[in-house]
């Protein structure tokens, strides 16, 4: 039976692009090794037409299809379940930049183009593609779209959803929807692209996209600030935003425990600031004005923030190398946690105005449950997204800490976010890991609505089944 | 039968808020008097709960529901058909600003709040709600959302879809979906709000929204430029955008025929420029920097544009009054056409890079069909949206011109836009007027997909029936 399927799939994409058996293992496991599945076969089409033919065949034969980009998902969205019944469809070979239009400030790229390659193609045309996330070299545009990726420049440029004008999608029955329009205004009918953005391949497979590009900023200013409290840090954000508008490109908060952890990981003695602070802020301002003009505005705004006591110290990067060095601290926090092991990773968002209270109260609750926990808290605070990742005390093993506390802490953090009308998954999506939690944080009305869309587009539930949508009593 | 319904509706909203007979006429006709329908009754609920009860009752009794905001639609989307079977549900009494959160830069408003009231509420909190369209005083947030309104500040702030974070919606069965989340990052499940934005009330009724606000720019610069061709004007846009980034808030192109028409309408002898030009550009730059800094950048960029021959003259508004005066010229073009009568109004968009060719070739085609037509062309060129509105020669009656040429010109313009992968409705939506045109400009795959969503949410086709979605052979 499955051999018959494999032969047919080979007839579509050729023998070298259908993998079976052991060759499927690296695809069927996520990059952290947390989610391990089995695939009937890995199929690697090279064109939209081939994707269409594969999906049509699977639809006709009731075979589930799990699309996969760079497989950098954190929540299991990109790997199949353990049944071994699904075709894993890798988009990696759809890797062409089809067109770049400088005047329209758009480019058309295929799903398998890596974020790095997309950014490079834009730069070659004198433009910026602004999405900025850690996995840039591996993650692919199709995955960025289907998870509505966020990252460190959302404050200025928005999430991936905001960076796309049109899509090409292979629908669950194999039909191709060509919605590759590069228009900033288009109200001629339902805007269907939103069905496929952030739905993790459960409604269809994105094969190409028209992305927006931006002018490359001529000026960039980066600083590390020290602040006495999250409340003051948020006030500083509000004032900088008033003074510098959307030029405030990143505003990243880092707790003292997070700073201590990453400095140790990097083998450094001190942060860019000579003394320690309860909170650090990495701020980046970018502008199309000259460096001189941008710096003058930045310094003036920083002075005001300091005079008002919102920050206690500031180190300003004096060149590109130093700026990169400041950013390295922020970017390495994730790896520092991975290496240290024993952290509970929560990716929540709340309204900005609720962030200080959330951090204060949730930290107290965690400490009450798990004393001596290190409060590794950081994130894209300018857009409300906090990575709230309690870390084991140094003297406790990762295994003991997680066994004793992980579930309780995660529930506690998620509950606190929901009480503030926040989200339990700000930018990491749902996959399988967060799927059933949606039963607790989303209303029945909302889940029924999502399922009605799912059933309308994919009545046989073959597209990335088991992801995003929790099973409901009425299913 | 209908009397029985009226009694029930009165039991929900009270006797003064159910109108029948002649009292429904002004609601059942659009403001231009072009689309005239009949309503079973006009119902004016005052709360989400009342909207829910009305819709639930209509659903149970198979009564179509036509939601209406400020009734400023141009394409018939806000009025019922002539059958007299529909309840017209006016959102006007849902007019509370529920909350303003300055630090989170959001506000929660009900659907019936006028755009003007929303802008005023934001200003009172020291913030900007940036949507800017001519009907500001009458149009309502619910209508702005359900038509994804555009206007003159899209270039900087995006369409209405980009200005909303969360929605509250009454679904076709009367259930209330509370999606009033004020989060800039939230990937916990399908982002369902996009189902209701731009779908003109065909999938549900928006009752409230969380809107984004922005810092109020401290500086504003407005200028009227003269340019020899649309190509050069577009080059000027590209360069200004490189130099000033997203501070370029509006970039409006005006043809010489459009300028002549509006000057006559305003009783003026000359534009802000002393001589005539083939094209005029109204440009506005706004910035959170000081006026001095913004002006220096603006003048420097304008000098560069002039030196490169992209523009031939520039008049810079020296104060707020003069800036308003320049804007009046742009804003009165629409009324000048209405008063003159005999114009074919097309609201198309194309990729920016295609605008000059589109204007050149389409103008030639129109002139070939209808000699001596005045080429009234204007619009938000910075976002690709051209109002291409050929106007009768002065010596021809409006009736003769439209009878002879309207259909042919409209088809010709729309065809030209579609050939360039553009849109036949950039910002005005579909309503009934453009509905059947979608059969020609959208693929069968796309229309089937839209219908599958419609059927999933509104299986009895009771929500604003006959709007947006064309009847298909398979229906």
TrEMBL record, chains A, B:
Its EC number(s): 1.-.-.-
Start and end residues of each FAD-binding PCMH-type domain: 35-216
Cofactor field: FAD
GO molecular function: FAD binding; oxidoreductase activity
An example Gene Ontology biological process: respiratory electron transport chain
Listed PANTHER family: BLL6224 PROTEIN, D-2-HYDROXYGLUTARATE DEHYDROGENASE, MITOCHONDRIAL
Family: Belongs to the FAD-binding oxidoreductase/transferase type 4 family.
Record protein name field: FAD-linked oxidoreductase
